[in-house]
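Help needed: design a sequence for this.
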């Protein structure tokens, strides 16, 4: 009996674990976002004048419109041109696999029949129809998946004040309760919801977890967006219209508007040529899919419910392109190489690679560096074969003149013999140490809230070359990592190791001459950083000042607004290649770059105004540069400290031997055994592995 129960429980766990990430969601790749609400009726115009600042769906705040005046717009909101079936049919023709609809935007006006406010399309407008229900049903009829956007901030809810320009205020308890009730009615009254796209606000971890639990209880398959905050989500969402230049090891999405300036309808938008926009969006779709993400492209219907002809034409154009090239997009996986080619992008599906060659970047040869296996044939999709050759184990294609004048890219399908392998070029450790520098990081996108988003590193991958049949790694760690439980994988063998104990050893360090530290104020999300060039140890550009009064290890505190940052820059000259240890104190977030490469980025929650960490910096002989971005999300003052050249003991920990497979190259991976969340930065940059 006990056995049966255990089996049942085990079966349940397996079934439950398979629900998310939803593989249908992962494979759909391309969906329609719809921003439609009261604001559409205004179309970016108030009192006869265009409102130039902000997005048009946020015209109430950017146009400085009183609540009662804005609410009065509902009296004229009679979208007789709305036809849910034709919108869904358009999405389908456009090649999109789901529709995500604004149930409630920041203005608080519900585009569905809410029980908890009369400020909704059924009770407050002459139209009196639940357009969201119509859309959900139209999706069902046409075999399209249906998702909802839900704004976590609400400018119409009395207990949601204060309301700030940045849309990322905390939620009051009353407002949070109200959101819970509305999410519950959405999740129970509109059939299966494929994804819920929470947006904005800045929730406590408890609030994010509460909403996550509610949705999961009501619709366990529903994918929950990263904008819920606190990394409590099923898929990460980039900032509005942001395209990552890296792949991720987690489900993710870029949401994009037709024009960066607005999501909601804007009557006075300069739209340009249909063909140009179509090509731009096709390239964006390819960029997202080749990095493993989903692309959610928005339309902003007019106040009467009709789709803007320009948007319709562009979508139909993309749909036509996908009819021909969809096999390279749908269910395709990210570029399997560990580099991005200069000529375009790559996806892979089974034993077929798809190469997207941008017309203006067409090279004479395409060298498939890292591919081990055999190319059977390469053909332009819907066109002719290409010349293929092999040279010292490297496969080379010779692209011809573009085949399809109507596509912004040439798409090549490369058929490979089964059992092919793609070896990373950059992860091949050549020395005797595996470190963050010679690893290929596995990335995610972490965001406590909109403004705290950054590329987080959740694992390191390496390739090691040895003909030995087993491997006995030695780990080197510092007190910064002590107590962390990691998973170290070699080929297919996985082991958990706790970083503690071991022997204190003498570590190869280098003498360093430290230059002056310079600082400068800056903005942007935590994860964005400008490139800094320098002349004679002094950074170029506006605003840099020398930190003349900063003592080693001394906490420096100065007033910086919320969501603002300070950059610190320093040059140092090392006597030889070797490590030097520093201690860095920072606020709600920090990003550390050595010689232009990110050593670590991470964030700390509200109230964590000062945190220190010890970092081993691997310097190269001669000049090195250190760039630190210290980010303030919530505090009044920003704290920073820097202590160069501290003593940081290194411990050496022996592990049991790993069996290795046949062959000379072997994979090796490190991650945390119990990360706080799927997107949390693992912070193992001091860890090194000897092999
Ligand atoms: O629904 C859309 C936007 O209305 C919503 N998210 C997408 C999907 C959103 N609300 N707030 N934000 C996104 C944060 C945006 C902040 C900024 Fe800006 C965009 C800062 C600068 C550009 C908004 C526009 C605030 C000033 C101008």
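Sure. Designed sequence:
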């Amino acid at each position: 009996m006990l056995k049966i129960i255990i089996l049942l429980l085990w079966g349940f766990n397996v079934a439950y674990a398979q629900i998310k990430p939803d593989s249908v969601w992962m494979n759909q790749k391309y969906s329609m976002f719809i921003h439609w609400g009261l604001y559409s009726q205004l179309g970016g115009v108030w009192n006869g004048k265009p409102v130039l600042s902000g997005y048009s769906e946020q015209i109430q705040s950017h146009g400085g419109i009183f609540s009662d005046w804005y609410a009065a717009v509902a009296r004229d909101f009679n979208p007789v041109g709305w036809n849910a079936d034709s919108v869904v049919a358009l999405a389908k023709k456009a090649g999109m696999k789901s529709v995500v609809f604004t149930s409630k935007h920041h203005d608080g006006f519900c585009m569905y029949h809410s029980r908890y406010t009369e400020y909704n399309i059924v009770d407050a407008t002459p139209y009196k129809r639940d357009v969201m229900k119509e859309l959900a049903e139209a999706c069902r009829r046409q075999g399209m998946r249906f998702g909802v956007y839900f704004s976590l901030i609400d400018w119409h809810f009395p207990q949601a004040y204060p309301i700030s320009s940045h849309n990322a205020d905390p939620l009051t308890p009353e407002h949070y309760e109200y959101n819970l009730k509305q999410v519950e009615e959405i999740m129970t009254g509109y059939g299966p919801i494929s994804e819920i796209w929470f947006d904005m606000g800045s929730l406590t971890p408890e609030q994010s977890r509460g909403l996550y639990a509610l949705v999961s209880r009501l619709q366990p398959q529903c994918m929950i967006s990263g904008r819920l905050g606190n990394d409590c989500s099923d898929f990460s969402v980039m900032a509005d219209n942001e395209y990552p230049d890296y792949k991720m090891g987690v489900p993710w999405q870029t949401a994009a508007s037709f024009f960066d300036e607005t999501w909601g309808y804007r009557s006075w938008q300069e739209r340009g040529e249909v063909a140009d926009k179509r090509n731009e969006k096709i390239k964006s779709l390819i960029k997202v899919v080749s990095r493993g993400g989903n692309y959610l492209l928005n339309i902003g219907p007019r106040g009467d419910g009709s789709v803007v002809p320009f948007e319709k034409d562009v979508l139909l154009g993309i749909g036509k392109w996908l009819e021909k090239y969809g096999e390279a997009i749908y269910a395709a996986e990210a570029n399997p190489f560990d580099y991005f080619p200069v000529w375009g992008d790559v996806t892979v599906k089974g034993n077929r690679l798809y190469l997207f060659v941008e017309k203006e970047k067409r090279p004479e040869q395409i060298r498939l560096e890292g591919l081990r296996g055999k190319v059977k044939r390469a053909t332009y999709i819907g066109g002719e074969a290409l010349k293929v050759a092999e040279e010292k184990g490297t496969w080379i294609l010779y692209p011809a003149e573009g085949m399809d004048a109507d596509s912004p890219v040439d798409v090549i399908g490369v058929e490979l013999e089964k059992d092919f392998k793609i070896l990373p070029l950059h992860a091949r450790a050549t020395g005797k140490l595996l470190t963050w520098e010679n690893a290929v990081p596995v990335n995610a996108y972490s965001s406590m809230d909109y403004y705290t988003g950054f590329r987080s590193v959740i694992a390191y991958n390496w390739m090691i070359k040895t003909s030995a049949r087993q491997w006995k790694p030695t780990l080197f760690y510092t007190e910064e990592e002590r107590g962390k439980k990691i998973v170290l994988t070699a080929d297919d063998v996985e082991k958990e190791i706790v970083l503690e104990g071991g022997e204190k050893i003498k570590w190869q360090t280098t003498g360093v001459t430290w230059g002056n530290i310079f600082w400068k104020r800056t903005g942007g999300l935590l994860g964005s950083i400008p490139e800094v060039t320098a002349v004679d140890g002094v950074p170029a550009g506006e605003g840099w000042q020398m930190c003349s009064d900063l003592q080693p290890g001394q906490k420096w505190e100065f007033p910086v607004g919320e969501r603002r940052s300070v950059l610190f820059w320093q040059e140092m000259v090392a006597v030889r290649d070797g490590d030097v240890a520093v201690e860095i104190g920072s606020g709600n977030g920090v990003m550390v770059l050595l010689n232009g490469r990110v050593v670590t980025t991470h964030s700390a929650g509200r109230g964590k105004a000062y945190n220190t960490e010890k970092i081993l910096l691997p310097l190269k002989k001669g000049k090195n540069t250190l760039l630190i971005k210290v980010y303030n999300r919530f505090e009044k003052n920003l704290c920073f400290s820097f202590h160069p050249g501290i003593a940081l003991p290194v411990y050496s920990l022996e592990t049991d031997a790993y069996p290795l497979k046949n062959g000379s190259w072997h994979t090796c991976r490190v991650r945390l055994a119990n990360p706080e969340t799927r997107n949390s930065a693992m912070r193992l940059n001091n860890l090194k592995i000897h092999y």
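Residues 1-17 have pLDDT under 50 and may be disordered.
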